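Friendly challenge for the regulars: who can give me the structure tokens for this chain first? No prize, just bragging rights.
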Amino acid sequence: MSKLVLSIPAETQAGEQRVALIPSQVESLVSLFKEIRIGRDAGVAAQHANESYERAGAKVIDNAADLYAGTDITLCVKRGNPEKEAEALSLWQPGMALVGFLDPQVPDRSHLPKYAAAGITGFSFELMPQTVHTTPMHATAAMSTVTGEVVINEAAERLGGLEGKKVLVIGVGNVGLSAALTAAKKGATVIALSTSPTFRSKLQEQGIEFELIQDEQNGTMSPDDALSLQRASVRNHLRGAHVIVCSARRVGQTPPRLITEKDYIHIRTGALVYDTTASSGGNCEGNVYGQDTPAGGFTICSKKGYPKAAPVQASALYGACASRFLSVLLWRDWETRSVQAVTACCIVADGQINPVSKLEGTDAARFPGAAQYALSQFWQRVSR
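First reply, four minutes later:
Bragging rights claimed.
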């Protein structure tokens, strides 16, 4: 057992129903901490009562001051809303580790300098590299899987089922893969388009038609020419689709605009176009992030946070990833590559902000040292 205290606050972002750990995960971690605390009713929306956490070994806490007093690690799903986060900042102790989705690259990143000023060390799951070694703690990938399922389940409900209907999936990363497989299970005819062949065999094994569309061929083709060919491939499959799932992303770039207003005439009346990339600009022209938008007889659909619409499943998956992450953060008993992944997630350390935030004043030369120093200080506390 370490001498550390782990605290899990109730989520405060609008509409957020997830909880960072479910009772069974608390039970598996309780021997590793001096104490695990959870905010009262934090798990209720995910169907986990306060009593379940108490039976698992956690202490249910009524107020923020008591929750954060002496806390070494705070585990959340999403950073708090501005009011609650301001309260938490006044209570967090220097050296505390904050773990969760911390919005390191959203347009408004004004919270990051506040984290740095508070002297905390922040670990943001959005920065987790995706490799075979990080899969067990890759919360972003896990939530993407939930997103694909939520989109298809909602579409099926709105259309009275998907049996015999055509579903077009554009972009086959974690979201697209999940959406395609879920739609196929519901009896839909599924076509998946992607610039990567990674999941081709897996999709084809389930009877899903897969088409590899043009990429930039390692720089041998201009981005504009590649995009033009991608749009043409997408356009060829729009007609007749009852559901179109847009999930094409590019690492470090805005999502490609693959459906333009000129393409609207190819989309059937009554179709549902789910643009899961709308928060970053979107694949479909005309999307409005967080709301449904009528467009030419069909609807462009967007939600702010798909996984929170399935809090039971999403909480269990998120908690599994967070539990693995904590095991590395506490004990370093995984191989070096896992420790490197934890370091890659560090967004704030020793008063410095990770340059990936693209905030003015960040120091690319100094941050790696700051992150290593903060982690070494934390690990010393673990080993006491």
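The radius of gyration is 22 Å. Residues 5-128+311-383 form a domain with the Rossmann fold fold (CATH 3.40.50.720). Your move, everyone else.
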